[in-house]
Write the structure tokens for this entry.
Amino acid sequence: MITVLADKDLYRITDFIPPSVDLSLYDSGSLDNIPEGTDALLLRTVTKCTPTQFPSLPKSLSFVGTASAGTDHVDKKFLYENDITFKNSAGCNARSVAEYIAVSLLLWADNYNHKLQNYSVGIIGAGHTGSAVQAILAPFDVQTVTYDPPKEKREESFSSASLDDVLACDILTFHTPLTRQNESEHPTLHWLNKEKLQGQKFALIINAARGGIIDEQALIEAHNNKRVSSYILDVWEDEPNFSDATARRAFIKTPHIAGYSIQAKECATKMMINAMIDHFSLKHDNLVTDVSNQPVEDSPSTFWSLSDALTYYHPIEDYKTRLMMLIGRSKNEKCEGFNAIRTGHPLRNELHCLPVAQGIKEKFPVLKKLFN
């Protein structure tokens, strides 16, 4: 029997873990060492797996998994040097993030009375999520430009737009990992900086990838100078201790929840556990696999605007309101509140899983394109 140490807030971890495993749960805020005898460690992004966090690792540890697409909270070189296999859940929340981007764009356009088809969207990063964003925007007749030089090098069939072409777009949305100079030939830390913003004019900037991809000081300066008209942030530099100044100016501000759906969380947990099962050559026991969609009753008479309908089906406005309440709080209150929203707010269903009355779709035809 293997011993597994897992974050207690991993979605349905006790449902999906094999019964043959000795499972112990930990609180992400209090894990400062990994007990001897632990064979596998299962994480969320709030726990850093680095030499600083864990100066010594138990010799028994041979597998670390994270229920997330992102990996910047894990020092992969550190694990490799200790002969530990690492797996993430790449692509688990691609659809959920794509829906967040689409809803954000529609809310922005509705609020400012813009027509989306009049704007070009530059997608930085063409992996699972960037590709999902491109796919979800296709029915809206929005011109998209995809920029991903590393993918162009990896895949002969993919051709990346030039830097000049993507920076010429009206809107930028980011879907890359966070990498630093010593980690990648194409580092993304502060990819959007003062230099790239200089001389450009953007209608909207969106970051739902990782905090730090955008230099927030440069973003604020560009916003003050009218080079960036609006911006939407789901991720933040130094989160959960986000910048009050950055948050106040954001059109939409949310606490790193773009990928928080029932379907994405279930997928992430399953991918991580399946990788662990394969690593230890365990049996794929019959695990619980059902997803209980939250029923939503349509109320056509209450939807006076497209924004009303969108925020009824997607909790983006609720997340925004909750985050705004943390602005001006102390660092501890802000960090605790940020994490509490992420773990305490009920997960949403992805839009393609929700029933929408025909009357709603007829009143707001754009929803036919989104709820597919």
